[in-house]
Amino acid sequence: MVNDRLRHSDGMLLLQKKRALLRRWDVLAQHQLALSHIDDALPLLEEKEDCLEDLQRVDSLLDDWGQSFPTKLDEILEPQGLQRLLEKIRVAEQEFARRVAQERNTTITEIKTLLQQLNYGAVKSNRPQPRHRKTIL
After folding, report:
1. Would 4 be classed as within a structural domain?
2. What is the pLDDT at residue 1?
3. pTM for the model
């Protein structure tokens, strides 16, 4: 049977796991920026969602560990490095969100143009056509 209690050494392992997950998220965020088409981002978004779920579990365990042990892990393992990694992820995510919004606006503009063209064609076809008169000689 596995021991459900956290030990003092588990704190370091949890923090290392958190950093590894953040590095994975950073790699995924950089990959999605490198995509030529936003449509190709779906598998990356699913992986990032899994990564986020794992990060939430690790953060919860770290909170539990922090209540049991007074040691500040962030002071031990270079908090600036973690902050730089989080900032890098934030910038990549903002840039991707900007690209998605830009592509959405482009698509909306294209749809509006097509609708205008369709409406113009419909208006033009609803006009009465000139009648051809037969001339009898």
Report:
1. no
2. 31
3. 0.69
Residue 127: DSSP 8-state: S
Considering Cα of 59, then 93, then 106, then 41, what sign does the dihedral take?
Answer: negative
Question: CA 42, CA 18: separation in Å to the nearest integer?
Answer: 23
Q: Tell me the HSE value of 28 on the side-chain side, using a 13 A CA sphere.
A: 18
Report pLDDT for 2.
Answer: 41
Domain assignment present for 133: no
DSSP 9: T
Our count of domains for the chain comes to 1
Residue 82 contacts residue 22 (beta carbons within 8 Å): yes
131 lies in a domain? no
Print the domain residue range for 98. Answer: 10-126
